[in-house]
Structures are given as structure tokens and as C-alpha cells.
Design a protein that fits this description.
The protein is an alpha+beta fold. Helix content is about 50%, strand content about 10%. GO terms for molecular function: ATP binding; protein serine/threonine kinase activity.
Amino acid sequence: MESNSSNTSGSNSTPSDSGSTTGNDTAIAIVLIIVGGIVIVIIAFIIYKCVKKCLRRRKRVELHSGTASSIDEGTTPNNLETSGAAVGFSQVELESMDRFLAEILQERPIKFTSFHLKSFTENFSEKIGSGGFGVVYKGQLPNGIPIAVKVLNSNMDKRAEEQFMAEVGTIGRTYHLHLVRLYGFCFEPTVKALVYEYMENGSLEKHLFSSEKKIGFDKLNEIAIGTAKGIRYLHEECQHRIVHYDIKPGNVLLTVSFSPKVADFGLAKLCDRENTHFTITGARGTPGYAAPELWMPLPVTHKCDVYSFGMLLFEIIGRRRNFDLELQSKEWYPRWVWQKFEIGEIDVVLTIADIEEKYREKAERICKVALWCVQYRPDERPTMSSVVRMLEGEQEIKDPADPFQYMVAHSLESIATSSTGTTADYSSGAARASSSL
Ligand SMILES: Nc1ncnc2c1ncn2[C@@H]1O[C@H](COP(=O)(O)OP(=O)(O)OP(=O)(O)O)[C@@H](O)[C@H]1O
Ligand SMILES: [Mg+2]
């Protein structure tokens, strides 16, 4: 019975064991297939990623070698213009462009390649103007923001390079309603450029000395106040004091609504707020606007900008250059204004400047502030915050002393010399002025 039963149980167990073995095998096979499948998918994904990365790297290398070759063909913008068709935005890495635009929002200057600049300016096709340091072109960022690209002269010497660094280092991180924004720069062995926000109405110089008189006196008064606020920010409000050195109508740019922004910090100097005096090497500024201490062996402070701003105020009042050989009267305008003020005939100045009766009070204010700003002794010149308050009628303006007394001993013409010069030709102008003093 037992043996039967054991037999029976033995005969029953065999098929059942073989059934479970088959089931286990199937389960193992299924798990292996699934795991194998997952491994294959992971390997395929890794290979895909690697290939994509390699392709992207190769594309980047091509992009840079493309840039280099276009530069090799020539170093000037003209050469860039003729070195092939414009490169479309599609070829510019969109990913890095997104990063660039994000950095613009974070107010950090961006490093562009000359390839990008070529793309933004459609091969440097629209020239806006040129100055002592290079040529300015109109362009557009991929998101439609208009820009002005200043391509610096290729024969950049050490000083110019220093100025380039000053602009990128100090101004790239300086943001104010009345300062032109620096979006970025390009610093390649043969192409150095600065990328600014585009100012639709160009420079104040263009409007101030044109016979068209597109801007009325009230707007000019606003422009004077806005410019003063921009300089006040540089001197008194930003982290480090920044001395501009080259305040003049050509460096005040106007937005579409004629709001002013101070431009061109190429000569800017960053100084310690506590360290008020400093020495400078080489002539700076533009003749006619540069304070006496800039071309005489005297200590220089931020007050040299106040002097230049005063000269700008005279030109705003007269709507003429301070020293204009083409005019019948060869007199230096600031000194003539002083002479009229001294004998109580400021009205004559305003009548000749064609200023309407309703603006006379504001205009007289500008005249007096200008006379204060151009005082010979820097410590007698007001601070820019005081200038703003005086221009806005919030601070009483005392009668200024004669700012030009020091000139009695010198030839007036030599001091006002070359007032139409640009920054770059100042060295010779300064040399002339100081040799004749
Ligand atoms: N951000 C800008 N937006 C619009 N136009 C500009 C901009 N920057 C410069 N320009 C124009 O380009 C021209 C040349 O400017 P640039 O600064 O090179 O020379 P400048 O100011 O005349 O002389 P300097 O070299 O002494 O500063 C100017 O007439 C100015 O109107
Ligand atoms: Mg300029």
C-alpha cells in the first residue's frame, strides 16, 4: 500500500517537477529578454548621445574655423564685408544665442565672435558713422533688438587696448537710464568691437549744430538735465567712481524720444571714491571740452567731467560750437557769455540765441550753471548732483566768479584751440595748446 502510495506519489511528482522547471526557464528567459532589451536601449541611447555630441563639437569647430578664415582674408570691416555672403542666424548656434540673450537680461557684457557680428550686421552693410576709434555699423540681435557695433581700428595700440578693457570692464556692468548700454564685445586677435544698444536719433552734436532745429529749447533743457544725471551716476552713485573724460555733444546719444544717454566710455577711468586725485598718462579728452588740468601738469579729479559738461551747456544755449571760425564773430562763446553776464546783459545772450520769453528763466539758469562748471579751480566747480539740482530749479544759483581770469595771461585762441577736433587728434592739439601757454 505504502509502496503503492509512494509509487503513486512518485509517479505524480515527476510531471509536476518537470512542469515547474519549464515554468522557471520561461520566466528566466522572459527576464533575460527584458533586461537585454533595456541594456540594448540604454546602449543605443548612449551611442546616440555620443554621436550627437561629436556632431555638435564638429559643427562648433567648423563655425570657429569659418570665423578665423574670414578674418584671415582681411582684418578691417571692409574686408569682412567682401569676404562672402552674409551668414544667417540659422547657422549661429541657437543654444548659445539663448544664453547670450539671457546674459543680456542679466546685464553682463557678452563675448561675441566676429562671426556673430557679421551675422548681426548683415556683413557690416549699414554704416552709421565713424570716429577716432573706429567705424560704427547698425545691426540687430536675433530677437530683433537693434544694436550699434563699433569695430575698432585694426592698428589698436596698447593705450587703445587699455581703453577697450576700460569700456568692457567698467561700463559693461554699469546700468542707468541715461547711459548707453554695452551689450557685449568681440575680442579676437584681428577683430575688436563693442556692441551697444542702438540710439535711433544719433548724437546730440548732429542736432545741436544743424540749421534744422528739430529739437525745441524745452527738450534741450531736458537733454541737459538727463545728461547731468548720467554723469552724476558715474561720479556719485555707481559702485566705483567713473570719470568719463570725454563729455561732449558727440558722446550724448538720443533715443527715439530724444532722451539722452551718455556714450563712449573708451577713456573712462575707474577710481577709488576716497582717492580723489590721480595722475594720468597721455592727453585725454577733446580740445574745447577738456578741462585745463587735463593738458596742464595739474592734479586731475572727476571735476574734469564737470568742466566738459559746462562747455556742453554753453553749446546747448547758443546752439553753436563754442569756437567756430566760420561764424562772423570769432569770439570764444563761453567767454562772451561771461562778459555779458558780468555787465548784467544776459538777456542779450538769450535774444541772440533766439530763446523764447517763456524759456528765459530756464535758459538763464543754464548759463549760470555753465559758468560755475567751467571754473578754473576744480574744487570751485559744483558736483554733478548739485548741477542737477540747480538745473531743475531746486537749488539757488549764486552768481559765479569769472572762470576765465587765468586766461588773461595767455593767448585766448590757444586755449580754445581746435575745438572741433576729435578725441584721437587731441594729443597734437594738447601739445599745441600747452606749448603756447
Ligand atoms: N549706440 C549708438 N547708436 C546709434 N548711433 C551711434 C551709436 N554709437 C555711435 N553712433 C554714431 O556713430 C558715429 C560715430 O561714433 P563714434 O563714437 O565712433 O565717434 P565720435 O563720437 O564722433 O568721435 P569720438 O571717437 O571722439 O568719440 C556718431 O556720429 C554717432 O552718432
Ligand atoms: Mg563717440
